[in-house]
Amino acid sequence: MEQVLREVPVSQIEMDPNQPRKDLGDLAGLKSSIEQHGILQPPVVTPAGKDRYRILAGERRFTAARELGHTSIAVIVRTVEEQQRRLLQLIENIQREDLDPFEQADTFRMLMDEHGVTEQELGERLGKSQDHVSRALTIAANIPQQIREEFYATSRKVSPSILLEIARTGNTDKQQRMWESAKNGHLTVRQARAARNTNGKHIHEESAPHLPTKAIIRVENATVTIECDGSTSPADLLAILYKAAEQMKEKAETPA
Active-site residue numbers? Predict the structure, then answer.
């Protein structure tokens, strides 16, 4: 869908008289954000006559900018039909089962920004709880970009529940320590929740479950003896066993 971004005088923009939400709430925080960063997501408007536009989404952003004294703002111009198609595209996208937590949250945010819905209204439209929507948005808003990039580099194997606990941690250094443990398979949700309320300096050493120093495992046609130090975790053991199996395979395939 082609998107038209246009700078329009505030005097040419009108509110939608059919908008059911009349109370725009406290705009102080939004005004502060606009003063510091500008309008990050332009309001969506539709043509409403010669040199006139009506807001489809973004009433709060428009009102905050107007009250700050902006004489013109950048807007996205769409017809009502285009806006409806956009809504359907985003809803269809969010129903995909392969969306990761960040993709899901980004789509939630676009739906809220472009169509002027609240978390509760969005949840009702999608058949999800408001709490589900809120958790997803928390992950996207509070996870540092570096961790997001590493999440994709690690095949997205860290669960949304652990990401949420990392996101809820206010300290970026602690977030990074928790992430290092999580991406290496050394952090459970319970441990992440506990680490969030502590200094988190020794998440792996103090929280991760460790294995006994020696174990003998008997399975069909094989007996495996495992000896390790006291700091080996289940994730470490899986990696060790995989490597040992690969070495045995290489030896078996090497001509005598």
Answer: 59
